[in-house]
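User: Predict structure, ligand nicotinamide-adenine-dinucleotide.
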Amino acid sequence: MINVAIIGTGSVANSHIEAYTLFAERCKVMALIDSHEEKAIELKEKFQLDCLFMKDYHELLNNEEINLVSISTPPQFHAQIAIDFLRAGKHVLVEKPMALSLEECDQMLEAAAESGCILSVVGQNRFLDPVLRLKHTLDSGLLGKIVHAQVDSFWWRGHSYYDLWWRGTWEKEGGGSTLNHGVHHMDMLQWMMGMPQTVQAVISNTSHDNAEVEDLSIAILSYPNGSLAQITSSVVHHGQEQQLVFQGERARISAPWKVYASTSQENGFPERNPALEEEIEQVYNSLVPVIYSGHTGQIDNVLQAIENNSLQVLIDGQEGRKTLELITAIYEAAITAKPVNLPLTKSSKFYTREGFLANAPRFHAKLKSVDSFQSNEISLGGNLEQT
Ligand SMILES: NC(=O)c1ccc[n+]([C@@H]2O[C@H](COP(=O)([O-])OP(=O)(O)OC[C@H]3O[C@@H](n4cnc5c(N)ncnc54)[C@H](O)[C@@H]3O)[C@@H](O)[C@H]2O)c1
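Assistant: Predicted complex:
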């Protein structure tokens, strides 16, 4: 039996507890930790948990019964809490974003390596059928070289979204739509395309005058083989029509799923290639549907690794770091108005959190701050299943 503690029992903690309680034969939620007692009590009652409650996670570090912690606090605390639990010999599943700087990611990776414990970073979209199938189809090579990717991380959040105490500042949230929303799609993109060589970007705050951070960014990524990708990370897109579109030399595929293949006529104009489309469809449909998806899929993945005494999880700390490196490069390119080459090194002004705080633009002062909203309900994203 794997004993679990949840650190931070706000909105997203619901998805973690739902998964752990579904796997009741494999694990038990033993402790809920939140600096606000009423938050923990709410979830304890909702899920009818028989568990400990603490306000301060330090009290749990020496508890020998705990094997795994889910960290779902605001982003500014992720790194320190993860490092403390890794050093205490506990496996860690940390919510996105992994941390607020590459320096923090490196410290987390070091703590994981020293302890021999699992460090996994939430990227629940990788555990969705349309995403797994897209990756499988890209890996088949049927499309030829991927020449262009279009990633629309389109979300919509009202003005009051940034009133929550930890949102909307570089210090506590660490960034805006690029870090906290685009992170989902950056994770999928770097998983599917690898890391780019150069990043160019622009960030803006168009609609949220209660936030220091951006609500819209557009980045162009160049890959060593000449391919390009464009990523828009936004919280100003009505309808949240998210997509990842990959253009190969021989066909295009996307999530939400669509395939179109062309060949060239004698004069260079396109002719549809239904035979290739059929072949690609077959590869796409050949993958067995997942039993557990989203957060539940990722938690199953982490539990399996612990059960098998393995450190192999689909999204480990190195994967989380790559996504943060991409995001950091987007900020650096936008803020310095210069292309940025990867890999980023420690000499980057944006390698540390202090560097971010010293260099990031404050689009607006955050003048309003609320402790919490009446409703804890959140939606986790666009529907990549839709056509
Ligand atoms: N994977 C996803 O789709 C997804 C969705 C939403 C949020 N998130 C991420 O999850 C994290 C939490 O977001 P949320 O929307 O649940 O926030 P939230 O504000 O609803 O909940 C955070 C909770 O952490 C508690 N807390 C704050 N500091 C603490 C500390 N030092 N120790 C213990 N508890 C502490 C707060 O009291 C609060 O109850 C963020 O990193 C966010 O980006 C991920």
